[in-house]
Amino acid sequence: MPKLSSPPTASRRDPSETGTDGRILESAIALFAARGFGEVSVREIAEHANANPAAISYYFGAKEQLIKQAIRAVIAPLNVKRLAALEKVTAASQPPTVEDVVRAMVEPTVHASLNGAGTEKHYARIMLLGFALRQPFVDEVMAEQTDIIVVSFVEALAKALPNASRASLFWRYDFMHGATQHILLDQTRGHRLRRLSAGLTDTDSAEAIIRELIAFITAGMKAAA
């Protein structure tokens, strides 16, 4: 498999900064996460950012480019954290455990989504929108930001599960991603799991989600094919 380079960084300005382009990007991410890429107009983004609509064209070009930058701004910082966590568990002389690899994915992702102070808190919604909107420009940026994560984690899982087939590892990585994404969207569905369990499950607790996800995913990774 060809070696993938690291994905580009989010943008030339951190969205948390107060410059016009930073405010526009931050507003776009918040509005996109709340309503979807297609349901938010450039004018609405400009109003939310207290900016002239012409500034969006000046800094970002067409709306498509703003969407791409929004996706990068949300996913790229989290990728840095996940790859750093993965490098830490794979740098030892001994192969990583399955739980080590799963934790390197789950912990940064859950903490970013539930406890993140910046745009990363919109990760689950932006990922959902990115995979749902099948447009070439969205597919391009999603591949740019996610392929390196998939390949890196599959390589680590291959060390933890040396007898597993390559195909099985890709399947199981995808199921890991799906389970994590699903529970992180629970808040946007009115805390459905907490309601169904009569309050037994606290889907606002990062610690509870991390604990249950790691146990569930690790068991699945180790299961016989």
Description:
It is built from ten helices and no strands. It has 225 residues and is an all-alpha fold. It has helices spanning 20-35, 42-48, 53-60, 63-90, 98-115, 123-132, 136-160, 166-184, 192-196, 206-222. Helices cover 68% and strands 0% of the residues. The chain has a domain at 75-222: Tetracycline Repressor, domain 2.
What share of the residues lie within helices? 55-70%
Oligomer status: single chain
Q: Which structural category do the helix and sheet elements fall into?
A: mainly alpha
Query: Compute the gyration radius: what is it?
Result: 19 Å
Please give the largest β-sheet. Answer: none
Distance between the termini: 23 Å
Beta-strand level of the residues, as a percent range?
A: under 5%
